[in-house]
From TrEMBL:
GO terms for cellular component: mitochondrion. Its main location: mitochondrion. Its EC number is 3.1.2.4. Hydrolyzes 3-hydroxyisobutyryl-CoA (HIBYL-CoA), a saline catabolite. Has high activity toward isobutyryl-CoA. Could be an isobutyryl-CoA dehydrogenase that functions in valine catabolism. Also hydrolyzes 3-hydroxypropanoyl-CoA. Belongs to the enoyl-CoA hydratase/isomerase family. It catalyses: 3-hydroxy-2-methylpropanoyl-CoA + H2O = 3-hydroxy-2-methylpropanoate + CoA + H(+). Pfam families: ECH_2. Pathway: Amino-acid degradation; L-valine degradation. The gene is HIBCH. Residues 51-380 form the Enoyl-CoA hydratase/isomerase domain. It is found in: Mitochondrion. This is 3-hydroxyisobutyryl-CoA hydrolase.
Amino acid sequence: MQLRRTQFSSEGSLAMLRALNRLQVIFQHLKMSKQTDSAAEVLLEKKGGAGVITLNRPKALNALNLPMIQKIYPQIKTWEQDPETFLIIIKGTGGKAFCAGGDIRALTEAGKVGDKLIQDFFVGEYRLNNAVGTCKKPYVALIDGITMGGGVGVSVHGHFRVATEKTVFAMPETAIGLFPDVGGGYFLPRLSGKIGYYLALTGCRLKGRDVLKAGIATHFVESEKLPALEKDLIALKSPSKEKIADLLNSYHMKCTIDQEKEFALDEHMEKINSLFSANSMEEIVKKLKQDGSPFAMKQLETINKMSPTSLKLTFRQLREGASMSLQEVLRMEYRLSQACMKGHDFYEGVRAVLIDKDQSPKWKPAALEEVSDEFVDSCFKSLGNDDLKL
């Protein structure tokens, strides 16, 4: 009798376990399907004639990680071929940021242990930047909120960039031992005068209408009007690039926020153009010291905090990029990205700015003069079979 009771209880337990397992599987599926809805890090939807990309990591300020990049890239390629898709819209959720950059922390962790992510991430990101830059369908980026680094890469190369009063643009990479990548070597030297050099080397932030005035945005619309604008874009019947431009212009013309405000850099443009036109990074520093004006001293103070290696790489990146195609620039930047991943300053910069937040990185080398031309040359050298293929 004892034996049979044990047998029954163990069989009962097994049945219970199986039932529990089944429940767990069901819950897992439910969780998964829920995740793909609200918790998916990027939402890809077809609305009317528009393909809509929504960056959906509000807590991380919509920073791009590799899984997001790997979802967006093939979707852009698919929509590009689809005769029923007439335009592509990209936006961010959460109200604070369009996209604050790439997932720097993940890269730091990967780099420390020699993980393949340090290649895969940059390959994926730069291919995505190129897909945006060569997109055959009109591409509209609603850059509402913080737009930095990787966020610039998925917007600036497209046909239309709509800024709002909440937009904050910056390429702050020299402060973390990197360089303004994602095609920065292409668009920055093409901005008027020496604005691009100034933004790249100092990491200066531009806000609201200034993003338009610097030539980074193409339109300026109130943040609260974006849902209506998106609705109107989606409602357009088989729109041409001209029709989309007309619609964006009509919203732009009606926007009166900060209309009278002068461009924040206007009063300094003469100085920016003269101080940042030089043949070397050392020469820029020398010019700033000689000028001695409050503006020049402030820039000098900023530049002195940046990674000397990053400054030298960035200076050359912009000079070379000025006469290259976007594809050539991205290939060059991939080489630089891999050099930075092998170096010291990127990990030290991330530690000082993002992890310990002590804001006092110990750069190696610590001075511009110690970053040799031979070293800089080596960072630009071909990687042979490992070069970026677009």
